[in-house]
Amino acid sequence: MRARWIAAAVVLLGGVLAGCQVSVAGSAGVSAADQQIANRLTEQRAAVDDALDALGKAPALELDTTVKDASGKPIGLGFRITRDGDGFGALPFEGHVVQVTELGDDLYLSADADYWKSHGLEENSTQFGAGWVHTVGTELPMDPGPHFAPDKLVAGLVKSLSSLNQTTDPVKRKLDDGTEVYQLGGSLGELQVTTAQPHRVVSFAPALLDPLGGPKLGTGFQVKPLTGDALKKFHTDFDNAVGGLGQPFDGLSQASVVVTNDRLDCQDFVGSCTATVDVTNSVVGNGPGAKPVVHVTLTIDVSADSLGSKTCSTQGDAAADATITMSCTVKFSLPNRTASYQVLAKPTAVGEVHVPFDANAVKAKLDKSFGTLGG
Predict the structure, then answer these.
(1) Which is nearest to 340 in space by CA: 371, 311, 304, 288?
(2) Residue 65 β-bridge partners
(3) Closest CA relative to residue 252, chosen from 119, 375, 133, 339
(4) Each residue's pLDDT tens digit, 64-86
(5) CA atoms of 145 and 148, how far apart (whole Å)
(6) Which domains can be identified in the chain, with CATH numbers?
(7) Do 314 and 350 touch, CB atoms closer than 8 A?
(8) pTM value?
(9) Which residues contact 125 (CB under 8 A, 6 or more apart)?
(10) Structural Rg of the chain based on CA atoms
């Protein structure tokens, strides 16, 4: 009898469980409204996927943004970059407009003296503010090459999708030009993708790529692929930019110079005096394998009793940790009488570290790169 009760209990329990399963299955239906939202979310995800796929295949991109100058007037900035990560243009870094040229692993910046002062380079701010400076991407809040090249940009945006709201009803808005976009928002900023085909990325927040450094570049960039004539113009403009770099300063090195062996040779009855010195430089901070050039400016103040003083200057280049011999000449106006004078020369020298830059070689590399891209 006990065994029969046990068997009956098991059968009864199984019947109860079966009844519960049927009841739960019958209450899990999706409402029509929820299904419509799910369908719209599916359409949005497909649009984002298509737009990112197209963006990653672009040969080059143009990124545009707007900032305000010191007077509050809006100014437009643009940066163009190839699939290989070579690019140039203007970007906003921490409230400063910085001209950027990136060629492979080499980064060149041009900014005013205040920018360099804000980065702790008070001593070099004046000279750096007057030219181009070679540095490394880690010196910037966000290195444009590894973040803005088409495939790198897509990888960063894909990684950021989890921070964007993709579970509620998609948000659509009309831009000023009438384009309708999906606007995916989150704590780091927004991503905009066109609702109509062919889907494309319209804009993105740089913080989506780098939550720490990105906000220092502003709130958003408009993005568009460059092909055809626009790509060819990019190539031409890039060549011009490369030609304007000159001999950039080395932003990572410093040079000290010492003047020795100063000699003074004055010609009788002529009034000309030539001062010759040796200038020895010492460079610190240059990386392994680097071959910086030290540009030396020599100034010599020459004075003579009753004749006054004259100043001459000259410039020269020397290898790092080397000595260069330099000279310059002054000429005094001599009175119409025979006399002797004590002449003194006071030399001073300043050294600037520059990075050798062969513009023609760089342009040749760009020709090959753009050739494969169609520009």
Answers:
(1) 304
(2) 77
(3) 133
(4) 999 888 788 889 999 999 999 99
(5) 6
(6) 56-243 (2.50.20), 250-354 (2.60.40)
(7) no
(8) 0.83
(9) 113, 114, 116, 117
(10) 34
